[in-house]
Write a structure and sequence with these properties.
Elements: E1 12-15, H1 25-39, E2 43-46, H2 80-92, E3 96-101, E4 105-107, H3 112-115, E5 139-141, H4 147-164, E6 168-171, H5 179-192, E7 196-199, E8 213-215, H6 217-227, H7 234-246, E9 252-255, H8 260-265, H9 269-273, H10 277-286, E10 290-294, H11 319-333, E11 347-348, E12 357-363, E13 368-374, E14 380-382, E15 391-395, E16 401-404, E17 410-412, E18 417-422
Parallel strand pairs: 1-2, 1-10, 2-3, 3-6, 6-7, 7-8, 8-9, 9-10
Antiparallel strand pairs: 4-5, 11-12, 12-13, 13-18, 14-17, 15-16, 15-18
């Protein structure tokens, strides 16, 4: 893949279209842009902006993933001009905007269902059907064996790049749509402008010619199990080994500690990660992967957000805002921490507490990062059996000098983490 150059050290920030005041998402989000720019995020992901179906709607407002018109803007969120203004203001601040795209299914009352019923999948009775096995009764599946559907969907995705100058897409349940469709779309979009494509899926074939980034669902699952005492750090060794050996070297894997799906259906970041929340956040930035911030995390969001209703976030001062700010700055300042394919591969540093503490080096010709993440409640004194970690460092957060040689011990507090920067 030829990733857009601007994605090199970018952090993705998810904007949930229901978590703003009733004046409309686009106007409220536009006012947030200076704050997000100061935080340092690079890619703004807007959840679906289209009108929502009314037939079989869930809740009072329905799911934003039940699309009634791929060419329309949901008046709940604002107007086309409001969206264009949001994108323009983001671009002026050096940030990029991707839209959430739902290609797998539509709302029951999308006009395509009557104008082109042949474009839809059918159940054993010959009726329209929701995605099988899931409780997605408010939508019906599309059938990508139909050439007309493919042409329509490609044209709709091109429209938003041309009309609003957006910079790419986050593609919902991307694995339910044929890979060759996504590859064709990527070629078409790149002819308009270089785009960034994020797949809500975890499969390496999507990186061949379609997507820059895919979800690291298994990374989150490993961290979740570790934080709840159901696994030790070795489960992360499995993920990182898989990532290094089985996936393309240029594949960006999106590491996250919260998103709208996890938050709404499984729990807040504190419920899922407990005492390890901050440690996991830091690892999502310092380890390999492109990190995600779900809106509200920087305000210490500590509850589940309603999915089918408006549920504004309480925007408050919280230490996590400064944490994200420092982590993003580290990622931008040190080339070894860049996203794939630009960043350095993580190299495991063996220690005397490998079941509790994840320790690694990321090093290129410009910088060297030694990182330690303690996923247990007790402090640990670390001794290392190899020399890769030797050298002069500064603490990445405090700036204090640290010199490490053979026989030296590094201490990390319970559920603590350290990032040391050397050259």
């Amino acid at each position: 893949m030829n990733h857009p150059a601007w994605s090199k050290s970018a952090t993705v920030y998810q904007i949930n279209t229901r978590q703003f005041t009733p004046e409309g998402t686009f106007a409220a989000a536009t006012r947030q842009l200076p704050r997000l720019h100061e935080l340092g995020v690079g890619i703004l992901w807007l959840m679906p902006v289209h009108p929502i179906g009314e037939k079989n709607r869930k809740g009072s407002l329905g799911s934003p993933y039940a699309i009634r018109d791929y060419y329309g803007v949901n008046p709940e969120f604002g107007t086309l001009e409001d969206l264009q203004n949001f994108v323009g203001r983001a671009h002026a601040l050096g940030m990029y905007v991707i839209l959430d795209w739902v290609a797998n299914h539509t709302a029951w009352d999308n006009p395509l269902a009557t104008e082109h019923p042949e474009w839809y999948a059918r159940d054993y009775k010959g009726d329209f059907r929701p995605t099988p096995w899931w409780d997605w009764t408010d939508i019906i599946d599309l059938d990508y064996r139909q050439a007309g559907l493919r042409e329509y969907m490609r044209g709709a995705m091109e429209y938003w790049v041309r009309e609003c100058d957006i910079d790419g897409y986050r593609c919902d349940v991307a694995g339910y749509v044929p890979v060759d469709f996504w590859e064709d779309v990527r070629r078409s979009l790149d002819r308009i402008k270089p785009v960034f494509m994020l797949a809500e899926w975890e499969a390496r074939d999507l990186h061949r010619a379609a997507f820059d980034a895919t979800y690291a669902w298994s990374w989150h699952e490993a961290v979740h199990r570790i934080c709840h005492g159901k696994a030790d750090v070795a489960s992360l060794y499995v993920y990182y080994s898989w990532n290094e050996r089985a996936w393309p070297a240029d594949a960006m894997r999106m590491t996250f500690t919260d998103n709208h799906d996890k938050n709404a259906w499984e729990g807040s970041m504190y419920e899922l990660l407990g005492a390890g929340t901050e440690t996991a956040i830091a690892l999502s930035f310092i380890g390999e992967g492109i990190p995600l911030i779900h809106n509200g995390q920087e305000a210490g969001l500590d509850r589940r957000l309603a999915f089918f209703e408006r549920d504004p976030i309480e925007w408050r001062e919280h230490p996590f805002a400064d944490l994200f700010r420092k982590l993003i700055a580290l990622k931008k300042e040190h080339s070894a921490l860049a996203n794939a394919p630009w960043g350095a591969t993580m190299i495991r540093v063996p220690s005397n507490h490998e079941s509790d503490v994840l320790t690694f080096v990321r090093q290129d010709e410009h910088s060297k990062i030694l990182a330690l993440f303690n996923f247990c409640g007790g402090a640990r004194e670390l001794r290392f059996g190899e020399k890769l970690w030797h050298g002069a460092y500064t603490d990445g957060l405090t700036g204090a000098p640290v010199s490490l040689a053979e026989g030296d011990v590094l201490e990390v507090e319970g559920w603590g983490w350290r990032v040391l920067v050397g050259w």
